[in-house]
Design goal:
7 helices; 184 residues; mainly alpha
Length: 184
C-alpha cells in the first residue's frame, strides 16, 4: 500500500498546495507520525496525476518563476475517504535503534550506559518542551469537524509519547544506579 499517496491526498483535501508546501507539511505537521523526503513526494505527485486523483495548475510567481499547485479531484477525494474509513489492524512495533542498543547494554560499563541514557533524556525533554509550546497555540480543543481537530489529537498523543519516553529513561537511569549500589 502506498501510504504516502493517502498522506498527500489528505493534505490536498485540506488545501491546494505546491510540492514545496507538501514537503514543509511533512517536515512540520506530520513529522510526529510520518515522514517523506522531497525525493519521494515529487514522484508520488506524478503518479497521483497519472491516476487522475489530483490535477495541477501552473501559477506564475514574479516575472518567470512557475510553480505547480496541486488540487485533489473528486476521484481522489473518494479514494482518500475510502482509505480513511478503513479499519486497520494494529501495526507491529516500529524499529527503534536506541532501544536495540539498550537491550545489549550489559556490554557497556555503567558510566557509558548512564551517559547515553542521560543524553537521550535531554533530547526527549527538549522535544517535549517544543510539543507543549505547540499545544499552547490552542486556546481550546478545536471543534470535532475542524481540520485542526486531528492535529490536536496527534499533538496530544506526541506529548504523551514523549512523557512516556522520559519516564522510561528516568527508570532506566535509576535501575542502573540501584544495581550499581548492590554491586559495591
Amino acid at each position: 500500500m502506498r501510504t504516502l499517496k493517502y498522506a498527500i491526498l489528505g493534505l490536498l483535501n485540506r488545501n491546494p498546495m505546491t510540492g514545496y508546501d507538501l514537503s514543509k507539511e511533512f517536515n512540520f505537521q506530520l513529522c510526529e507520525f510520518w515522514s517523506a523526503k522531497h525525493s519521494q513526494i515529487y514522484p508520488e505527485l506524478k503518479k497521483l496525476c497519472d491516476e487522475e486523483l489530483i490535477t495541477y495548475t501552473v501559477e506564475i510567481s514574479g516575472d518567470v518563476l512557475e510553480k505547480k499547485v496541486y488540487h485533489i479531484t473528486e476521484k481522489g477525494k473518494d479514494e482518500f475517504l475510502k482509505w480513511l474509513a478503513k479499519d486497520q489492524p494494529m501495526e507491529p512495533t516500529p524499529k527503534n535503534k536506541f532501544r536495540l542498543r539498550v537491550y545489549f547494554y550489559n556490554n557497556l560499563d555503567l558510566e557509558t550506559r548512564i551517559m547515553l541514557l542521560e543524553h537521550q533524556l535531554i533530547q526527549h525533554n527538549k522535544r517535549l518542551e517544543f510539543l507543549i509550546s505547540q499545544k499552547e497555540a490552542y486556546t481550546e480543543i478545536p471543534d470535532i469537524n475542524d481540520p485542526y481537530f486531528g492535529d490536536y489529537l496527534v499533538l496530544d498523543g506526541a506529548i504523551i509519547r514523549e512523557e512516556g519516553q522520559i519516564k522510561w529513561l528516568n527508570n532506566c537511569i535509576n535501575y542502573c544506579l540501584e544495581q550499581s549500589k548492590k554491586q559495591v
